[in-house]
Fold each of these.
Amino acid sequence: MSQPDSSNCTMTFSLRIVCNLLYVAGFCALQSCRVTSSVSTLEPDFYSIRSMNQPELRNEKHYVIDSGDTLQLLVKQIDKRQYVAPSTYKYWTFRRSEIDVDVFTLPFKIRPAQGLLPAQLNSNFNAALYVGRRVDLYNYRWQSVTPTFGVRQLRSRGFGYGFFAGIGSTSMTDFVTRSPIGIEYEGVVLDAGIATIYDARVFNVGLAFGIDYLADANRQHWIYQQKPWFGVLFGLNLN
């Protein structure tokens, strides 16, 4: 009876660890979005408003001015301001979307198995420019200080989705080519793909799915040429 291949067992165990780390990172990113914003008032802007008690508010965007305890809604059709008390807007969710531009670094990529070569975890340099749609959700909450007094807090959650393109490097050896190339070097690759991101307040974190294009003549021998990979990305918001 044949014994299991120890290298395959090690790789399977390593992939399980990586998948668990990705799960934990994604969960932490989602949790970190549910934090109190550093500002206590909404920025004056157009928002979509979601309310269970007033579904008609969803029909169009409203310009919202936060005056402290009271919100002002500017009604364009009749050129009038509507004042909303905290007892009403505390059940509302304010939604704002915009174009988002970020610069990301990809600390690692996971490449699926190719032929006899098992799945690979690559940590070469990679940087990318991301352009997509960002959505922010805001809610007001009141933290009780005394039985008769509470402090208003603005809670926000942000996420986005879009496309990215960038540049990176990859280790070129005979192990990752279909025929021997006779040398070992760091090849230049061009990245492209799609990504989803979450606003973790201090930084942005997300998941990426893309392909690589080797920029030199050995691209025809490279087993990962235009093959899909996925990874985690981190970056700063440039807006």
Amino acid sequence: MPKSCSVPKCRTKPDDRKSFYKFPLHDPERLHLWLRNMGKNAWTPTRHHYICHKHFTPSNFTVCRGVRYLKKTAVPTLFKKTKLLGETLSPQPITSTVPIVSKYIQGSKVSKSPEEEEEEEEEEEDDISVESFNFEQQQVEHCYHKNSVSKEQLEATVVELQKKVKIMQQHHHRHLEKLEGLEKAVGQLRQSKLLYEERLQCLERAYLQANATITDPEQIVTVIYEDSEHFYTNVPRERF
């Protein structure tokens, strides 16, 4: 059956994806506080009546593994035209009424049929599923925000890497130009070396030819002085 809030003038509907909690029928004292704060002391709830989460303070809940649960000591205190529990309770001790005790408690335990227990478990699972849906929705929004931030950071990183790649390409181009210049210089040096070796070989051949032609140094005629009419020579003397 569809759930609805039993608090007067509360318009919370199951379609709002809100949480609904059953009355503590097994705890007469806490049930009396619930009814008193609601202003319905003469009303007797059943296991098919609920109160939505709007009437509980955040301190009445506990979160375990992303699922919000209502504490076993929780008491609703948020109602229209009423004050919080600490202001509305009288200093007199609270005593349980006879109808509640006689109807819901026999000794210290409450006897439930298997059908009732199964139905209550299904209702609790419904409450948990609603809370899980809300938590998962928050997680999806949080993950979307994180992904957006990561995308911006990634784009900034890509831009920075592109700048570094451009700088490295410029350095590489300069190194290639220097390498080409060095290769040209080496080629010129090799060519100069070949020319020098050729000249050296030519000089050696000329020296050898000259040495082979002149066998006796004394036969060399040296021109000492020469003018327009006469010239003087140094002729070596014949050996006796």
Amino acid sequence: MGKIVYLIIQIIVITCIFAIAITASYFGLPNPIGVIIGVILFIVYDVLFMTLIDKFEKRRRKFSKTNH
């Protein structure tokens, strides 16, 4: 289940990054800057969501152990 949620979140994040890059180029910023900002944001989000999902999975494993 965690993997599906992670995939959905990644799709949303990628869409947001493309929107930011397009907006940046629309406001006259050179396109590479928008792409670089997007890549940095993507890496930050990736690390954050990986750690969050790791914690969530560990917590769920603990609960399943206590129930059995």
Amino acid sequence: MVLISSTVNYGWWAHGDNTDEPITMVKYGMKTMDAIVAATKTGAECIGIQDKVGTIEKGKIADIIGVDGNPLAGHRQP
């Protein structure tokens, strides 16, 4: 198994541009939900902080946003 991650805090993205990588993943065939997981859960696993962040669970730190509508709709779904 190969883990695919994005936005793992490597420091050269301008603030707000860290969504470019998951968008590119979807553009080239990754399912939208898989790109979201790559940017959250898998990213945390790759840098060894999955016990603190990456999923919404009791005791973890999280930034949560609300969106109007389905965040998976309107994107290319292979």
